[in-house]
Amino acid sequence: MNKSTKEVDGLDMPRSKADDAEVQQSHVFGDRTDDGPDYRNVGWLGTVALMMKTQIGLGILTIPASFHALGLIPGIILLCFIAVLTGWASHVIGTFKHRHFETYGIDDAARLLFGRAGFEVFGFIFVIYWIFIAGSAMLGISIGLNAVSAHGACTAVFVAVAAAASFGLGSIRTLGRISWLAWIGLASILTAVFTVTIAVGVQDKPTDAPDDQPWKSDFQLFGSPRFVDAATALSGFVFAYAGVPAYFSLFAEMRDPRHYTRSVITSQCAITGTYIVVGTVVYYFCGSYVATPALGSAGGLLKKVSYGLALPGLLVSATLFVHIPAKYLLVRVLRDSKHLTANTMTHWLCWMGCTLGITIVAYIVASAIPIFGSLTSLIGSLFGCLMSFMFMGFMWFYDHWSVGKAQPTKKWRLRAFWAAAVILMGAFLMVGGTYGSIVSIMDSYSASGGASAWSCADNSNSS
């Protein structure tokens, strides 16, 4: 492979891969045809919307509670640190994809790094990862429906409704057609969280605060959490950036992948700024009475209003989280076949089977682990560390180790040290966070006697 490079949109990418002809020719989907969907029609702004929507949605709803566990200052520092890790990992995805255009998903990258075993293992993890996230999105929708309707139906029914809606919208075949939904969903969730942010700032006290004494926020600049609580909170931050593995798919469907970096920078800055503002204000004014999800922090009426505003955004999140693993399975099954990009019966049966299968398993996850904060922390720790930044450290070494080792420079040594540190930090967070999340789930099940799975109880009053 030609290793000569040039700077394009901030990336070192091979000349042979950066040419316009290469950009217009997909190594995954083949040539564009009139008889089938156009999988490469997402502009850079549409990519920004999709990136932000894969991130902002569920994760932002746990950030104020994580600040409560850690303290405001450590919380902000650690959130920014996770933002740096995932931002670097997102950049590595772009450089790796530009060097290896034939890779579609993280499993293709794992095949290059670890052979067939890596391909199979990471393909399986990728699907399970997004199924768990889709399940958390369905759970979030059920919480919103409970809040808006004042628990108008059994929660298990609301989860089923969320699953059905996610299947319908997730079956839209291209990200180009979903990108306009992403803008709507992004506006919806941001309007909801900023409504709550403003509300907690102007109200006299949180609704759940005691009435028999004057209210003064008990927020803490520095917390003293148990290891389990700190690990769970940090895993919540990882979950807030858990959409990074989707960037493989977003890159593949960009109209001009050379604009990938500007999309990453724009979205990462906007995401992190939003997280800090919302998390800080909500925690500052609510203190220990902050709710999880955070939309319940402003009390009864505002909870209904905020969830009503947020429901479209939560639904778009679920749509993406069903679509992404289903698209992976479709490409995996039909790659190098005419059925991948043609409107044939085989194409439709395979596509609908993929979206339905993902939806059913995600519904089971949402019903079996219906504790929102614990589920999101479990996803962030068990899968998020590996998939959102740890694996990208190995990707960097694959592309840079042999050349840099032959002629090591100070810059190369620093970059290699950073990549190795990312891998080690990811391993530590994965083990510690998973332990903390499992303990939290076990505590919740002990408190409920195991009755929370497939429960009809109102899940919008958790805190």
UniProtKB/TrEMBL annotation:
Domain annotation Amino acid transporter transmembrane: ranges: 41-438
Chain ranges passing through the membrane: 42-63, 69-89, 121-143, 149-169, 181-202, 230-252, 264-285, 305-326, 347-372, 378-397, 417-438
GO molecular function: L-amino acid transmembrane transporter activity
UniProt similarity note: Belongs to the amino acid/polyamine transporter 2 family.
UniProtKB keywords: Membrane, Transmembrane, Transmembrane helix
A GO CC term assigned to this protein in UniProt: membrane
Superkingdom of origin: Eukaryota
Record keyword Transmembrane helix present: yes
Pfam families named in the record: Aa_trans (PF01490)
Descriptive protein name: Amino acid transporter transmembrane domain-containing protein
Major site of localization recorded for this protein: membrane
PANTHER family found in the cross-reference section: AMINO ACID TRANSPORTER, AMINO ACID TRANSPORTER (EUROFUNG)
Location in or out of the cell: Membrane
Ranges for region Disordered: 1-20
Membrane topology: Multi-pass membrane protein
